[in-house]
Design a protein that fits this description.
- By secondary structure, the chain is an alpha+beta fold.
- It has two helices and five strands.
- A five-stranded mixed β-sheet has the order 4-3-2-1-5.
- Strand 1 and strand 2 form a beta hairpin.
- The longest helix is centred in the last third of the chain and has 59 residues.
């Protein structure tokens, strides 16, 4: 069985929308397929496709042949995937590292030192507060 990775047309008249599918090469364009691997919207500007690159690599390793259009979409998505992880991973890691020590470090000493201070402030609150008038 010859397997191909190709586009399956969806959407309305004059408003095409495609799904990237794995299908038997003998089945019709919009016919039976094995697995959906992503989407492609040619009318959308900039990044107009979303693909499961790990599943595409799996099917290519099994012998599936991508169509020319799908091959170019894979290439674009791999370039985007290479750029994206370092940019998003760095701020998340730095935010976690920055917030964790700040929250933990002041909490421990403040709890030990503030216990007597809390008792003193509680004692002040319990004492009646009268206006300071000289007698």
């Amino acid at each position: 069985m010859a397997v191909s990775i190709r586009l399956r047309r969806e959407g309305a008249k004059n408003r095409p929308y495609y799904k990237v599918v794995v299908a038997d090469s003998r089945s019709p364009r919009d016919g039976k397929f094995i697995e959906i691997l992503g989407t492609y919207d040619p009318k959308k500007p900039d990044h107009n496709s979303a693909l499961k690159l790990d599943r595409i690599d799996h099917w290519i390793s099994k012998g599936a042949q991508p169509s020319d259009t799908v091959r170019s979409l894979i290439k674009k998505n791999k370039k985007k995937a290479e750029k994206t992880p370092p940019e998003t991973a760095a701020p998340e890691a730095s935010a976690e590292e920055a917030s964790a020590p700040v929250a933990e470090a002041p909490a421990a000493p403040a709890a030990e030192e503030s216990a007597p201070a809390a008792e003193e402030s509680a004692a002040r609150e319990e004492a009646p507060t009268a206006p300071a008038t000289p007698e």
